[in-house]
Amino acid sequence: MINKLVILRHGESIWNLENKFTGWTDVELTKNGIHEAVFAGKQLAEYGFKFDIAYTSLLKRATKTLSIILDEMNLTWIPVIKSWELNERHYGALTGLNKDEMKKKYGEEQIHIFRRSWDTPPEALNRNSPYHPLNIDTYKDIPKEKLPDTESLKDTYERVMPYYKNKIESNLGKNIMISAHGNSIRSMCKFLFQLDTNQITKLEIPTGNPLMLKFDEKKELIEAKYLDQSRAKDLIKF
Length: 238
Prior knowledge:
Blueprint: E1 5-9, H1 14-17, H2 31-46, E2 53-56, H3 60-72, E3 80-82, H4 99-106, H5 108-116, H6 153-168, E4 176-180, H7 182-192, H8 197-201, E5 211-215, E6 221-226
Parallel strand pairs: 1-4, 2-3, 2-4
Antiparallel strand pairs: 1-5, 5-6
Helix pairs in contact: 2-3, 4-5, 6-7
């Protein structure tokens, strides 16, 4: 039985603030993003949370958020497992571009489809781009055929969920923290909340707000809530 599973989207990043498609680009947290992480850590500590193990992506906005939280909780000693499978969705040729400018270029409806549809990815990123994971040392040991040129939410789901089921579920019964990204978390939420492909396109994940999940002995979700209810967004209701 899971004691507690907490899933958190990283604090606000520089490209969140600049309204750019970030994806796998490794950008820093803003001052506000650091504040969100500190507040999340203090809130988790005040609620009496204790984690046995933590998981995060290879992107520093998620790893730094987790590090700040564990520092606030005096839990810097627990095992932290980093995996590229928990990375944000890859936005292909949209990577690094301003969302409002792209709405002017492609139309608001098309950008909405790229951002929120289940299975329509943006155009592939040129493999010579410095933003392509083929050209980033972080991913040099990952088989090239696994590195995406672009991803839909469906592609992200098919990357995230095998890792979740094979690696994270094996530790159920421990207190677990996951620091990840909007779309990798949406992928997990689709599975955990049993959402259909229409429902998941409407789910928003706030930055820096711990989502606490409780399960019964059958690993069925029985409770879910954001700790900061003032920024709860539209969590699926129980």
